[in-house]
Specification:
The complex is a heterodimer. Chain A is α/β, with parallel strands linked by helices. Chain A has one domain: Thiamin diphosphate (ThDP)-binding fold, Pyr/PP domains (Rossmann fold). Chain A is built from 11 helices and 8 strands. Chain A has an 8-stranded mixed β-sheet, with helices on both faces. In chain B, about 40% of the residues lie in helices and about 20% in strands. Chain B contains 12 helices and 16 strands. In chain B, the strands form 3 sheets. Chain B has a 7-stranded mixed β-sheet with strand order 3-2-4-5-7-6-13, sandwiched between helices. Classes of the chains: A alpha/beta, B alpha/beta.
Chain lengths: ~290, ~400
C-alpha cells in the first residue's frame, strides 16, 4: 500500500464490479480517505448495483440507496438529521455516476449546492450510462461511440462535447470543487480529505475508465486513466473559494491520439476528427495554463 | 383550548406538536400555507427543527427519506402535481419501511390544469404502500396528523393524511388544540431501529433480485393488513387521552339503513345533513365515512353495509375505463359475500365543483329506483355533469 493511505478496507471484496473497473477504485480510494465516520447516499448506477445484491453488501460504512436522480436530496436529509442529532463528526457523502450527476440528478445537486448543505458529493465519471449498457450521457466526450451514439453512414458517434460539470458546480459558489482521476490516487485522496473537512457543499468529479464501455482491456484501466491526464483530455485541478489551481501538470503533454487509439470506442475516428479533438483539448488546456 | 383554524393551520400545528425534526417541503397550491406556517414556527424558534428549502417535491420526499433513515422524525406536505412528482419516491419510502408522515391537500390533476379540490391525486397513488387517512373536518386533520406519527412509527409504514383543498385547507373552523405536554404524553420519541449509524453500519436500499423481491412485497402487504389493528389501537389510546374517537371508518345512522352512502373526506359532512333530512321523512338512509382507504377495511365495511339494500358510493376521482376507485375497491371487498347490496357509483365534485343537495338527492333517487327494480343498470354515473358543454348525446 502506498504510504499515507489507510490500509483499512471499508469496501469489502466480493462485490460484482467488472475486472478492471475504474469506478470501484474511485469508491475504494474515497472510503480510504474518508474513514468510517460517514453516511454514504448513493444514486442508482453501476456502483450501487454491484455492491449490494441482497442479502450481501460490500459496504462497511452506513449506506443508503433511494433512486437515480435524488442522491443530493437524500444526502441533504442525512446531513440535516445528523445536525439535529448533534453528530458533528459524521460526514454526509453522496456518490453518483455521471448520468446520475450531470443529467438526471443535476436539479437535486444544484438545489443542495445552492442551499449550502453540509455534504461532499463525489461523481464517478465513466462517461456513459454503463450500467444500462453503454448509452451516452451528458459526460460522454466528443466523438465517442456508445450504443445511442452509434457510428453510421450519417452520424459518427457523440456529436457534442462533454458537459463541464465542475464549472457548473463552481458557478454555485461552493467552497470546494475538484477534479481527480483514479490514475492519480494520491491526488484524489488528498482532495477527498480536504473536501470532507470543509463545512459546506463540496464536489469532486473523478474520472474513471469503464473497460466495457470504453472497449479497453481490463489490464489497461490505470494506463488509460493516466493517458487522459497526460494528453490533457482530463485535467486535474481544484477550485477553492473560486480560485483555480492545477494540481498536476503533465511534464510534456502527449498528443490526444495516444489516448484515443487505445480505446475501441474511438476507433472510427479519422485523422481530421482526431485533429478536431486535439484543437478542442488545446483550447481547454489553455484555460488551465497547461501547455 | 379551542382555536379558530384553517385545515392547513391544523396540519402545520399538528406537525409542530409532534415535534418534527426535519421538514422538507416545496410550495404548491393549496398546500402552501402549511409550509409557510412551519417555516414561521422554525424562523421564530417555536419549533426546533431543520427546514430544508428543497427545489422540488421529488427532492422534498427524498430528503425526508434520508433524514428518517438517519433517525429523526420527518414531515412533508404537498398536493396534486407535487404528489405526482413524488410518486417514484413514495414507493421507495414504503419499500424501505420508513415512518414518514405527509399531508396531502387533495387537489385535482392536470390536464386541464386545476387548483381546486378532488381526490384524484392521492387515489392515484393508493398502491404506493402508504397508509392513507382521509379527514372530514379540521379537528380530524389535527388529530389524525398527530396519530399518524404514532401509527407510522409503530408499523414502520409511511402515512399520508389527506384532506380536501380549500373546502378544509382554507376554511376556518373551531379546533380543540391539545397542550404540548398532552401530545408529548401520547407520542413517544422517534426511535427508528435501523438508523444509519457509523457505529452500526448497515445498508439500506439493496438490489432485490428475483429470489428475494417477492417476499419483500409480501411482507409489505402483510404489514399493511396488520396496520388496521394499529390504526384502531392508536385511535383508542387517542380517545382515552383526548376524548375524540377514531377508527377505520365512521358509521352514521346505518343501523337499519336500506340505502347507505359511502364517501371519503369533507363530503361526509354534507352527506350527514342529507341523511338527517331523509331520516326526518322516515327514509332509511345512512352514511359510512371511510377514514382509512389504505389499508382498506374489508371486514369493517362488510359489517357496515352488508345488511343494506344498496350502497351509493360518492367519490371525487375516477379510474378512466372502469369506475371510481372507491367503488371498485368496495366491490372487491364484497366479492364472495353470500349477500351483497346493490352497488352504485356517483362520480362528483371534480375540481372543486360543488356537490349540491340536488345532486345528492339525484344519487339517492337513482339508488332507490335500482332497489325497486332489483337490479342496477349503468352503475357508474356522474353527478352535475353539464352535458350541453360536451356536444355529446
Amino acid at each position: 500500500m502506498m504510504k499515507n493511505i489507510s490500509d483499512v478496507e471499508l469496501l469489502a471484496p466480493g462485490h460484482r464490479a467488472c475486472a478492471g473497473c475504474g469506478c470501484i477504485l474511485a469508491i475504494r480510494y474515497a472510503l480510504k480517505a474518508l474513514g468510517k465516520n460517514v453516511i454514504v447516499s448513493m444514486s442508482t448506477g453501476c456502483m450501487e448495483v454491484v455492491t449490494t445484491p441482497y442479502p450481501e453488501t460490500a459496504w462497511r460504512v452506513p449506506w443508503i440507496h433511494v433512486a437515480f436522480e435524488n442522491v443530493a436530496a437524500v444526502a441533504s436529509g442525512v446531513s440535516r438529521a445528523l445536525k439535529v442529532l448533534g453528530k458533528r463528526g459524521v460526514k454526509s457523502v453522496a456518490i453518483g455516476g455521471d448520468g446520475g450527476t450531470v443529467d438526471i440528478g443535476l436539479q437535486a445537486l444544484s438545489g443542495a449546492a445552492e442551499r449550502g448543505e453540509n455534504l461532499l458529493y463525489i461523481c464517478y465519471d465513466n462517461e456513459a450510462y454503463e450500467n444500462t449498457g453503454i448509452q451516452r450521457s451528458g459526460a460522454t466526450p466528443y466523438g465517442a461511440w456508445t450504443t445511442t451514439t452509434p457510428v453510421g453512414r450519417v452520424k459518427r458517434g457523440e456529436d457534442r462535447p462533454k458537459k463541464d460539470m465542475p464549472a457548473i458546480m463552481a458557478a454555485h459558489g461552493v467552497p470546494y470543487v475538484a477534479t481527480a482521476s483514479v490514475g492519480y490516487p494520491m491526488d484524489y485522496i488528498k482532495k477527498v480529505k480536504k473536501a470532507a473537512s470543509i463545512d459546506g457543499p463540496t464536489y469532486i468529479h473523478v474520472h474513471a475508465p469503464c473497460v466495457l464501455g470504453w472497449r479497453i482491456d481490463s489490464s489497461k484501466t490505470i494506463e488509460v486513466a493516466k493517458l487522459a491526464v497526460l494528453t490533457g483530455m482530463w485535467n486535474l485541478y481544484e477550485i477553492e473559494n473560486g480560485v483555480t489551481r492545477v494540481t498536476f501538470k503533465p511534464p510534456r503533454r502527449k498528443p490526444v491520439s495516444e489516448y484515443l487509439k487505445v480505446q475501441r470506442r474511438f476507433r472510427h475516428l479519422t485523422d481530421e476528427e482526431i485533429m478536431k479533438i486535439q484543437q478542442m483539448v488545446d483550447e481547454e488546456c489553455k484555460r488551465f495554463g497547461i501547455e | 383550548m379551542k382555536k379558530f383554524m384553517t385545515g392547513n393551520d391544523s396540519a402545520a400545528l399538528a406537525a409542530k406538536l409532534a415535534r418534527v425534526k426535519v421538514i422538507s417541503a416545496y410550495p404548491i397550491t393549496p398546500q402552501t400555507t402549511i409550509v409557510e406556517k412551519l417555516s414561521e414556527f422554525v424562523a421564530n424558534g417555536e419549533l426546533d427543527a431543520e427546514y430544508i428549502k428543497v427545489e422540488s417535491e421529488h427532492s422534498a420526499l427524498s430528503a425526508c427519506v434520508g433524514a428518517a433513515a438517519t433517525g429523526v422524525r420527518t414531515f412533508t406536505a404537498t398536493s396534486s402535481q407535487g404528489l405526482m412528482l413524488m410518486s417514484e419516491i413514495l414507493f421507495v419510502a414504503s419499500g424501505l419501511r420508513l415512518p414518514i408522515v405527509m399531508t396531502n391537500v387533495n387537489r385535482s390533476l392536470s390536464a386541464p390544469l386545476s387548483i381546486w379540490c378532488d381526490q384524484q391525486d392521492s387515489v392515484a397513488v393508493r398502491d404506493s404502500g402508504w397508509i392513507q387517512l382521509y379527514c372530514e373536518n379540521n379537528q380530524e386533520i389535527l388529530d389524525s396528523t398527530i396519530q399518524a406519527f404514532r401509527i407510522a412509527e409503530e408499523t414502520l409504514l409511511p402515512v399520508m393524511v389527506c384532506f380536501d383543498g380549500y373546502i378544509l385547507s382554507h376554511t376556518a373552523e373551531p379546533v380543540d388544540v391539545p397542550e404540548q405536554s398532552e401530545v408529548d404524553g401520547f407520542l413517544p420519541q422517534y426511535n427508528y431501529p435501523y438508523a444509519l449509524d457509523p457505529e452500526h453500519p448497515g445498508s439500506i436500499g439493496a438490489v432485490g433480485v428475483p429470489d428475494y423481491y417477492e417476499e419483500f412485497r409480501f411482507m409489505l402487504q402483510e404489514e399493511m393488513l396488520k396496520a388496521k389493528e394499529k390504526i384502531l389501537e392508536v385511535g383508542k389510546i387517542f380517545a382515552e387521552k383526548f376524548g375524540r374517537k377514531y377508527g377505520l371508518l365512521e358509521r352514521y345512522r346505518t343501523e337499519d339503513a336500506e340505502i347507505i352512502l359511502l364517501t371519503m373526506g369533507s363530503l361526509a359532512g354534507s352527506l350527514k345533513d342529507m341523511v338527517d333530512e331523509y331520516r326526518q321523512h322516515g327514509e332509511r338512509v345512512g352514511l359510512v365515512k371511510l377514514r382509512s382507504f389504505r389499508p382498506f377495511p374489508v371486514r369493517e365495511l362488510k359489517d357496515a353495509v352488508g345488511n343494506a339494500k344498496a350502497v351509493a358510493v360518492l367519490e371525487k376521482d375516477v379510474s378512466p375505463g372502469l369506475s371510481g376507485a372507491l367503488f371498485s375497491d368496495l366491490s372487491t371487498a364484497l366479492i364472495n359475500s353470500k349477500k351483497s347490496p346493490l352497488l352504485m357509483n356517483f362520480i362528483c365534485g371534480l375540481a372543486g365543483r360543488d356537490v349540491s343537495p340536488l345532486q345528492i338527492r339525484e344519487a339517492v333517487k337513482s339508488t332507490l329506483e335500482a332497489v325497486e327494480a332489483g337490479e342496477v343498470k349503468n352503475p357508474v354515473r356522474w353527478l352535475g355533469l353539464r352535458e350541453t358543454l360536451m356536444g355529446l348525446r
